[in-house]
Amino acid sequence: MNSTTEAASKRYATIDKWPAADLVDGIVEGQFAAIAAVSEASPIIAAAADAICERLENGGRLIYMGAGTSGRLATLDAAELPPTYNFPRDRALSLMAGGPEAFLVAKEGAEDDEAAAVTDLESVDFSQKDVLVGVAASGNTPYVVSGLAHARALRALTVAVFNNPQGSVAGHADFAVLLSTGAEFVAGSTRMKAGTAQKVALNTLSTAVMIRLGYVYQGRMVEMKPTNAKLHQRAKEMVAELADTDIETAARTLSACDNVIKTAIVMLNRDLDRGAAEAKLAAAKGNLRRALES
């Protein structure tokens, strides 16, 4: 099966003779093409985000699966959700062909292990409640294809992110996110514009999901945990701004509720003590906007 991501473009046949300035211009041009590919896929990404929200609201988990560059980008997206949005670590997982060590050292042949995909999903008790996002530039990576097929057989929600129009992952996905980036500047080097498109698409998808779930309020990361000096300062400024108060009051209120930003905002906006603010947030399932508007 031909793969556009592996094709060699005649346009780039002599790049080994190009001066550095032309090389850089050509590579950067490819990044613009990557963004354009994501833009074309926006409708399906939005539909996938809504479907993922529904599963997560009902207790499901967001699980990524990939190999090589695709797996590393998927792992990056999963890893950043807990610190950015305080999304539970046990509900944002990434399965990498070849195991966690393949994130740093390439495991040749791991992407061809179909049985490992099923074993890896079973090892995390993957179920119908969950979401599987399979990422594969070629769209034909056996590890990812097998994982998506297994997940779909369980009636879990499946999303495929891929760059080759002939990708077979599409046949196992409820949402097939095709990022048609075409031939690479260096033939087959899908860490380039295919990887850029995947990074942007995954970032877009997960951010949209977190916002729709209520982890963001007025564009601010109100679920953030202030775990260092920089984040403590950001938390105080966030509470002061969103509660329309001064930094000193924001700092005292944060201290009174163990530095939980949302609780501090509800306490100040609704003139409540900590217990009442926490109860209001609990009734709103943690959604700050609903808590403030109730």
From TrEMBL:
Q: What does this protein do?
A: Specifically catalyzes the cleavage of the D-lactyl ether substituent of MurNAc 6-phosphate, producing GlcNAc 6-phosphate and D-lactate. Together with AnmK, is also required for the utilization of anhydro-N-acetylmuramic acid (anhMurNAc) either imported from the medium or derived from its own cell wall murein, and thus plays a role in cell wall recycling.
Question: Which enzyme class?
Answer: lyase
Q: What else is known?
A: A lyase-type mechanism (elimination/hydration) is suggested for the cleavage of the lactyl ether bond of MurNAc 6-phosphate, with the formation of an alpha,beta-unsaturated aldehyde intermediate with (E)-stereochemistry, followed by the syn addition of water to give product.
Q: Highest taxon of the source?
A: Bacteria
For this entry, the protein name equals N-acetylmuramic acid 6-phosphate etherase
List UniProt keywords, sorted A-Z.
Carbohydrate metabolism, Lyase
What is the reaction catalyzed?
N-acetyl-D-muramate 6-phosphate + H2O = N-acetyl-D-glucosamine 6-phosphate + (R)-lactate
Under the subunit heading, UniProt states: Homodimer.
Q: Name one GO molecular function term.
A: carbohydrate derivative binding
Q: Which family does it belong to?
A: Belongs to the GCKR-like family. MurNAc-6-P etherase subfamily.
Q: Which organism is it from?
A: Martelella endophytica
Q: In which pathway does it act?
A: Cell wall biogenesis; peptidoglycan recycling; Amino-sugar metabolism; 1,6-anhydro-N-acetylmuramate degradation; Amino-sugar metabolism; N-acetylmuramate degradation
Q: Look up the record and give one Gene Ontology term from the biological process aspect.
A: 1,6-anhydro-N-acetyl-beta-muramic acid catabolic process
User: Recorded E.C. number(s)?
Assistant: 4.2.1.126
Active site per the UniProt annotation: E80 (proton donor), E111
Domain SIS intervals: 52-215
